[in-house]
Amino acid sequence: MSYARQMLSTLQRNNSVSADALVAAIDALSDCSQACSADTSADLREQDLAEMVTCIRLCLDCTDICDATLAILSRMTEPDREVTRPLLESCIAICDSCGAECERHAKMHEHCRVCGEACRRCERACKELLTAIK
């Protein structure tokens, strides 16, 4: 059981957001942030660093956006849809861009493959939560 699920079970919630969708998004955001951070470090060790510049920038952006969204969602209170919606939309956009860039390098770099998978999972989880809060 994830820590997000455990924490959610300790709180009395009176909101309409699906607990499963919220926990899935929190777990995916955390994993994506970690994967992007690790991928950035791995990208910086590649011999053809110039080829990795876009991947590094997108991974840094993805980490920052995922971390901000994770912090807001982890409060697990009634969501302020005017704040949560654009954060989730930003996550979906950056995870799509970062995932595509990582997938472009996936055959040559295993770390990019893993990061691309984390981005796609996060993108799906954020889409599901966005649908649940609308």
Keywords for this entry:
Substrate Binding Domain Of Dnak, Chain:A, Domain 2; about 130 residues; mainly alpha; about 80% helix
Query: Low-confidence spans: pLDDT under 50, at least 5 residues?
Result: none
The CATH topology name reads Substrate Binding Domain Of Dnak, Chain:A, Domain 2
Average predicted local confidence, pLDDT? 91
SS strand fraction: under 5%
The tally of domains stands at 1
How can the largest sheet be summarized?
none
The helix/strand order is HHHHH
Named at the architecture level, the CATH assignment is: Up-down Bundle
- The number of E-state strands comes to 0
The radius of gyration computed from the alpha-carbon positions, rounded to a whole number of angstroms, is 15 Å
Q: What is the structural class?
A: mainly alpha
Fraction of residues in helix? over 70%
How would you characterize this protein structure?
The mean pLDDT is 91. 78% of the residues lie in helices and 0% in strands. α2 runs antiparallel to α3, α2 packs antiparallel against α5 and α3 packs antiparallel against α4. With 134 residues, the protein is mostly helical. It has one domain: Up-down Bundle (Substrate Binding Domain Of Dnak, Chain:A, Domain 2).
